[in-house]
Write a structure and sequence with these properties.
This protein is α/β, with parallel strands linked by helices. About 25% of the residues lie in helices and about 25% in strands. A hairpin with a 2-residue loop joins strand 6 and strand 7. About 5% of the residues have low confidence.
Length: about 200
């Protein structure tokens, strides 16, 4: 039985593969250090803004060098941190997490990137293609942002539907405010959303 909650991302990806991508994963739009693929076959198409490994193509997830309708599925694991300055371009910053993963200064920057990627994913995925979108809810400027709900809303607006949802509990405390009185529950989990593109015919370039 495939469950909705697993303790490692490898288990979640394998569950998604078995249920929704039986031929394997075809693309990774934000490859980074390739953490997803330590125990799984690496996708044929790998992209990142600042490639760290051979075979990874320098490209934004909002503007991919792929033909329309050319993919059956893809994985997108973007940054989720906000209030990031020095680490926004994967350069050295004050926060170790930001230097490793990059991030955004405002939540609106995050929204622009996520929505732009959803729009581009709709273009490059074939009808009924699947986008595996990893995300995490965050507290920004003392306000709760339910990112996984926002992503589903934005995805529907672009022509996707939510096909499945998986939850990954954190092994340790996730990044968050370190000072002052606690106002919100500390977030200890992230989501893997499986989004399915609609049946509409891809635009012909």
């Amino acid at each position: 039985m495939i469950r909705s909650v697993y303790n490692t991302q490898e288990e979640i990806l394998e569950a998604i593969r078995r249920l929704h991508c039986p031929q394997g994963f075809q693309a990774d739009f934000t490859y980074g250090n390739g953490g997803f693929w330590k125990s799984l076959p690496r996708p044929k198409h790998c992209f990142d803004l600042t490639p760290l490994h051979d075979g990874v193509i320098a490209a934004s997830s909002c503007d991919l060098p792929l033909a329309s309708g050319s993919l059956g599925n893809a994985v997108f694991d973007p940054p989720f941190l906000t209030y990031i300055t020095g680490g926004r371009d994967h350069k050295k910053g004050k926060m170790a997490m930001s230097a490793r993963f990059g991030g955004y200064y405002t939540y609106s920057e995050l929204e622009i990137h996520y929505r732009g990627t959803l729009r581009e994913s709709y273009r490059v995925l074939a009808p009924l293609g699947r986008l595996i979108f990893k995300c995490q809810d965050i507290i920004h400027n003392h306000r709760m942002h339910c990112t996984h709900f926002n992503v589903v809303t934005w995805a529907i607006q672009e022509g996707f539907r939510l096909l499945d949802l998986f939850i990954l509990p954190a092994k340790s405390r996730m990044p968050g405010p370190q000072k002052g009185t606690q106002r919100h529950a500390r977030i200890f989990h992230s989501y893997f959303l499986v989004l399915e593109r609609d049946r509409a015919i891809c635009e012909i370039i």
